[in-house]
Description:
This protein is mainly β. Helix content is 0%, strand content 53%. The chain has no helices and 17 strands. It starts with a strand and ends with a strand.
Amino acid sequence: MTVEHGKIEGDISVDCELTLHGMVTGNVTVVRGGVLALHGMCCGNLVVEKEAEAYLHGTVGLDALNRGGRLRVYGTVGRRVHTTENGDTFIDENAVVGRT
């Protein structure tokens, strides 16, 4: 597992197990086989593809899009959470969606 604490400029693609405590200034896409535990911030969109997983404890500035993977939202999403392709999405009762 990789742990990142710094600031990442632009978009990233996650294809491994990553725990992120820092910030991504763009979009984060979790691709097949990737597992993301986001405790920091994604300024853009969080996209979870098929056979990928994301656990959001931090903040997504725009949308969290589940395109067939597994998404767990415990933190904050700036706009909306949207699920397609039979994705598995859970939003905790203490999560904040669309009120930032």
